[in-house]
Amino acid sequence: MTEILVLIYLKQLISPLSRFAGTAVFIFMKKVFIFIDGSNFYFKLRDLTSKLDGKYNLIDFDFRKFAEWLIRPNELLEIRYYLGAIRRERNNSKSEQLYADQQKLIGKLQQQNIIITLGQLIKHPDKTYHEKGVDVRLAVEMIKFARENKYDIAYLVSSDTDLVAAVEEVRAFGKKVQYVGIPKGQSYGLSSVADDVRLLRSEEIEQFLPKSLV
User: Fold this and answer.
1) Cα separation values, 106 from 2, 17, 39, 180, Å
2) The pTM is what?
3) CATH label, 31-208, candidates 3.90.440.10, 1.20.5.170, 3.40.50.1010, 3.90.226.10
4) What is the mean pLDDT of the chain?
5) What is the dihedral of CA 64, 67, 69, 71, to 10 degrees?
6) Cα–Cα dist 156/176, whole Å
């Protein structure tokens, strides 16, 4: 397993009068990939922001800063974002608006150097939209990169219990998985198979939301 060795001198961090001044501390940084289930995490963010004052534009959420904060002090190698691609429908204002919003989101993600993987978004007879194949793509890539030794720790930002088998497979390759969710709708299936669980709170994610209210 490749690890990056970082040397930190405590004399830069604590008072020179301390008995630990000048002591060298070795920290082994792990290689990290973050896998974000876009639609799943969007609804989690919407729930978290409902507890904050004001109305936030979630399209402007800073995923890059969020990821860097989430995995510290480890080394962030890649952020991978998965979502269903919206198709434009003629004479359908809802479809046009959804498409425009998604294109704006994709542009924001690309600006933050986030890798985007698209699945399908299927319109059902009741006119609701459901993703197809998105969780499969996420699972396949999470396992693939584990097998190729691309990372040491996978941060899974999703509460989709269908990913339990993928987490088990990743751990079989000797990799660690941290499940990232929120208290409401926590996946106990993922919680039981992951190496660690991180449940986000509203006050934690507020710093990554746009300052201007809409």
Assistant:
1) 32, 51, 13, 22
2) 0.83
3) 3.40.50.1010
4) 84
5) -150
6) 10
